[in-house]
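Table 4 source record.
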Amino acid sequence: MPATNENIRTRPVFKLAAIDDQEKFKPLPLPSGIYPFHLDIRQVLPNLPSDKMVFHMAGDTGGMMHPEFKHRVATEMIRQSKEDTTENQPAFFFHLGDVVYNFGQAGNYYPQFFEPYENYPGPVFAIAGNHDGDIDPSDPKGPQSLDAFMHVFCDTKSQPISFAEDSKRQSNIQPNIYWTLKTPLANIICLYSNVPRFGSITAEQKEWFIEELKNAKNDDGEKALILCIHHAPYSADTNHGSSMPMQLFLNAAFEAADKIPDIVFSGHVHNYQRFNKLYTNGKVVPFIVAGAGGYADLHKIAPANDFSFPDKNSLLNNVVLEKYCDTTHGFLKITLEKTENRFAIDGAYYIIPQQDDITSQASIYDSFTINLR
């Protein structure tokens, strides 16, 4: 059974035993598009409605050990995409990083991505995770960081992929490793937090991000502002804990731009967590961790009062853990809808059936709503 929050923990944690390995930072590839790295979703989905957008989200779907987990998550997402009523069918899958493990080489993509998602009917957008950007030092071909990811997701045109074997899925046309997906109902800012354990953002990307936040003010009241970043700024797990570098980066950027997003999505941590952060201006922002997308090993929530995982830090103030699931894989279904009387983001987190239950479908474990009006 999934965790039902028997653990009384209500705050994120830092992990004392974790080593911040900034020496693993990898240079970024050249952009495939032009500045400011925007992609209009209608270049990929020309018939996307203007009043409603439904899509899937999950991170950390790759892995070779116990592949049944990633296949079961993919199967449930595919089923929803084909069987839901027309107005509720997800139009695409947004991947929160770590498409493949343990390194981002091209040979890992077929068994870990193309095969399980071959029958997913919509396009797949993605941010890169630390494993996608890491390089196997023993690879005699000597690939550069993110070579394969760029071929799959950041091509100059949609076309067959040489290492996709018999898959019919073609490349996506994201303009850069950090970029913004422009949709009728939301601007989705997509960051790249590199390979180190707690993430690392270049000065150039930070400058771009602040400008994107400032420009998003032009759409206040008309579009949601969604932020996606692989390394989770806030987490209560025992494997990674919260990322102080990502917290400091986001806090500084939000202050410099005088703009805060409506919701933040991350992966990296292999479980589901939903935090609410109260900012000084009174805005409450959900920080969602959705990294239980298929990698076999899940990450446990730290027990309350465990001194190895301190939570008494001012950076963690006003951040409350509302719900978590650390025993079962799952995925998100996000709905944005604008009517005459309502404009909102509705989220549902689905957990896959237990392994011995082959007849049941994924069920909703958590749900949330953000009123944008």
